[in-house]
Design goal:
Length: 399
């Protein structure tokens, strides 16, 4: 996979907050992983975390006392304030339902939450809990509050839970957490000097002067991809269907409506770009004839549709050599990865980002699998911005 934690964690000062879940034992591996990446780590624990794992274990690995008791007389002054001033960022792993709810409510009654309140850099939560707890509305409200405050999430992922059941609630693996945290520190402008073309949103296929066929794409994934490319230094051409959101500042925006318009706009601009990322939900069909007058109401109506040009397949078929790097999306309701692999070969592209229709439309998060010639990388639940970075990590390594 493109990203390794060591790329941006060297010499970073990180607080790891451990709360009380069975996944607490994996926090030991996370702390080691961050240490291996060159970071300096301090650990804070909730009292219930110490029921699962001893503070001394973390003290042994980090060489500094793990902090559980804010009232410990050996800490001169306010240890949480000191840690907040010292740290570049904080990871909370595992983040239990209880810690998430208390954090969202602004509580600060233990070492983890008081320290969290004092952190100025990036904050990453790695939730771990039973799948019914994760799904609970109150918990999801808490997650949304924390996201709105700027916190990031990695996972949970689908898998075996402590109860023996399977479901969405398992903590992401330590290496995955470390990589997600490292990505929050990306300041490398690794796309500087590159031009990328991103398509986004739905297309609208006119039926008559007042009606069109379209789909529910919001454009958010494509806009996140454009935004992250801009942050990483690229010149970004954003070819976008009609959406209700603002494009990122700095993108060269080309607004289109139909698939034919999008096709023309992309073909006119694809020469000399380093990468094309097609997130647009291009309508597969358009009405065979465009009625110039509004169609009158009848008991039944049959619309003849013809196929639209497949823009991505055309780019794949006409490419000579390896430029531009081509990325497609595959949104399906079933057999997502298998269909994505089929698209990869059929459209002759380098990467297909596969996601399930229930995960990919509308919200701020996504659960995706990166499908490429070397295999599949299943990513846990992450924000669209995080997913965008994972895609650019992959692309940047191949430009
Ligand atoms: O074949 P399917 O529509 O599922 O493929 C999805 C991928 O192909 C997306 O990346 C989409 O932007 C692109 N596509 C395209 N032109 C079309 C249909 C899809 O570029 N007419």
């Amino acid at each position: 996979m493109g990203y390794t934690a060591s790329m941006s964690l060297a010499a970073k000062r990180i607080v790891v907050g451990v709360s009380g879940g069975i996944a607490a034992y994996k926090a030991v591996e996370l702390v080691r992983e961050l240490g291996r990446a060159g970071a300096e780590v301090r650990v804070v624990m909730t009292p219930s975390a110490t029921r699962f794992i001893g503070a001394i274990t973390f003290t042994g690995i980090t060489g500094k006392p793990a902090i559980v008791d804010l009232w410990d007389p050996s800490y001169a002054g306010e240890v949480h304030v000191e840690l907040g001033a010292w740290a570049d960022g904080m990871v909370i792993a595992p983040a239990t339902a209880n810690v998430l709810a208390r954090a969202a409510a602004g509580m600060s009654d233990d070492a983890v939450l008081t320290t969290l309140r004092c952190i100025e850099g990036p904050v990453l939560f790695a939730p771990a809990m039973h799948h019914r707890m994760w799904k609970a509305q109150s918990l999801q409200r808490a997650v949304n509050v924390l996201r709105a405050e700027g916190a990031q999430f990695v996972g949970p992922v689908h898998g075996k839970l402590a109860s023996g059941e399977e479901g969405m609630g398992r903590m992401s693996e330590p290496a995955e957490i470390a990589a997600a945290f490292a990505a929050l520190f990306i300041d490398a402008r690794d796309l500087a000097g590159r031009t990328v073309l991103v398509s986004a949103g739905p297309t609208q296929e006119d039926v008559d002067p007042v009606r069109f066929l379209s789909n529910r794409s919001t454009g958010r994934m494509g806009y996140a991809i454009a935004e992250r490319a801009l942050k990483r230094g690229a010149r970004v051409i954003l070819v976008t269907g009609p959406v209700a959101i603002e494009p990122p500042a700095g993108a060269e925006v080309v607004s289109v409506r139909s698939a034919s318009d999008m096709h023309a706009a992309i073909m006119a601009r694809q020469g000399n770009v380093d990468a094309v990322v097609m997130t647009a939900a291009v309508a597969d069909y358009r009405p065979a004839t465009l009625q110039t007058q509004k169609i009158k109401k009848t008991d039944t109506l049959t619309l003849d549709l013809v196929k639209n040009p497949d823009i991505l397949a055309e780019l794949g078929a006409s490419r000579v050599g390896t430029k531009p790097v081509l990325v497609g999306f595959a949104l399906e309701t079933n057999d997502v990865v298998a269909y994505a692999r089929d698209k990869l070969t059929r459209k002759k592209v380098d990467l297909v980002v596969a996601n399930h229709a229930s995960d990919g439309l509308g919200g701020d998060t996504n659960v995706a699998t990166l499908v490429h010639a070397d295999g599949d990388d299943a990513l846990g639940m992450m924000s669209k911005a995080q997913l965008a970075d994972r895609i650019w990590d992959w692309v940047a390594a191949r430009i």
